[in-house]
Amino acid sequence: MSILIPEILIVEDEPSQVEILRFNLANAGYEVRIEMDGEDGVRAAIEQPPDLILLDWMLPNLSGVEACRQLRRRKETRQIPIIMLTARSEENDMIRGLNTGADDYITKPYSIKELLARVKAALRRPAISIADQKLTLGKLEVDIARHRVELDGEGIEISPTEFRLLIVLMQSQDRVLSRGQLLDLVWGVTSEMETRTVDVHIGRLRRALKKAGGAGMVRTVRGFGYSIGE
Question: pLDDT, tens digit, for every residue of 75-109?
Fold first, then answer.
């Protein structure tokens, strides 16, 4: 993982797509590594964790979906943002991709402008003031510096996107945030992404909190958006 220049690992088996991605990402100032096989992509990410992974859905030997699952299980790669690249455009496919642990999902064919916006957003972190290095809500505590979430003293494992989502919600406790506001505050983009993406990640965050005993903390305000409270 690069300190100064973000490094992106592309796991894609179509040579033409690889070259397009390599050229445009390098031109945008990123370091780029390439793997063209699912198993090799997982191994490369574990051995030398990048700052972000662009992961194709259909890959030889190991699908992008299964590769994403494996990366989320490993300590070395659990917190790396993952963007799925796929020709599958059905909503159920998008939900399946995000539910494996991907942070975002881009359908082919996509514009380079959109791709670069998504990459920038995935690498972006929410602006956190010094006073907000720890956030608490009842027995729920978020330690931003240590990237740790605890409920009643027990650790909760969530993806980087759900972590940022939780921070934004906790910084606005008992305020309702619309899907558009969450897209802007968490992902840093608005029109380039579907608001359904927010719903999927809210669902993942809810399940993680519920598993730890925090059912009902994230609330849906029908017609408006989401809020968090005890």
Answer: 899 889 999 998 866 667 777 778 888 888 888 88
Tokens of 217: 């903390």
**Cα end-to-end distance, the chain, whole Å:** 37
> How far is residue 228's CA from residue 173's CA, in Å, rounded to a whole number?
6
Domain membership flag for residue 129: no
Query: Residue type for 93, please?
Result: D
What SS3 state is found at 18? helix
Domain extent at residue 192: 134-228
User: Residue 208: enclosing H or E segment and its boundaries?
Assistant: helix 196-211
57 and 100 housed in the same domain: yes
pLDDT tens-digit series, residues 123-170: 875 554 444 578 999 999 998 878 889 999 899 988 888 998 999 999
Q: Which two tokens stand for residue 19?
A: 């070259």
